[in-house]
Amino acid sequence: MLEKRQHERFDVENMAGAILMISEVSILDLSLGGVSIETNKKLEMGREYTLVIEQPDKTISVTGRVVWSLLKTFITAEDGSSLPVYQAGLRFKDILTDEAFAILPFISANKDEIEKRLRGLRFTINSDNPTFLKSTFKYKVKQISLGGMRVQVNHELKRDDSYPMEISLGQELFKITGRITSCRKQGPKRYDVGLAFSELTDEDQAKLADFISSM
């Protein structure tokens, strides 16, 4: 069912922003050179993501590029819907850094099995530490209103998912949460996305109203 639009939208030019994508993942195996993970989000080949491992005394953050990705299976959610399960491999970008070397004690504390590969040793990991993938990608704003925006992105977004977002309103950086209301493919790596603003404070709404009235 299409959602009824409550606010008038205005066409805009030369306006852009960024979407922060955060996905919880499970580590399958890990080495100083890369990681294999399992997630319910499809990862884009060649895109950079940051692996974040939260520990009681330290958070590890390492950036890697997706070198392989596949749909492994489907599972049944609590509401009866079918959810995809993906597996993917990331090759770390900068391995000679303090953050990368912080992986070594994590591997030592959580390794289960050791596998020899051409690029070195890789360890199967058994850990309960919260682990996430983060990625930021840009978008172009096509229309804006007090209730949401229509934007153009190069990545498919799932309807009803919500993301932290940033947008430049004049000289001010505006931080919001956007819920995806529609996503239509327009061409290769080009999607037309509708989103609704959520969790706006009264101050945020006032700033947005002032910006739109000044257009």
Automatic annotation (TrEMBL):
Superkingdom field: Bacteria
Pfam families: PilZ
The PilZ domain, residue ranges: 4-72, 135-212
Protein's recorded name: PilZ domain-containing protein
Organism: candidate division CSSED10-310 bacterium
